[in-house]
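User: Second chain of the day. Same drill as before.
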Amino acid sequence: MKKDIHPDYHLITAKMTDGSIIQMKSTWGKEGDQMSLDIDPLSHPAWTGGSAKLMDTGGRVSKFKNKYAGLGF
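Assistant: Same format as last time:
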């Protein structure tokens, strides 16, 4: 591998939707930073069997539905 071209790979903490905290390696942020997750394996319908609803945090889902409402999906 070439030297000095890869991002720093370090430990961060990730806060899950249920409040639990796990440590993981990432290139995001700096060593020791905490990332709060909106969607994780505890809340995503792909892992929960489709019973959970995703939160529309920025109106993106509503905007998408309005944009493509007349296509007949």
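The first strand starts at residue 10 and ends at 15.

User: Great, on to the next one.
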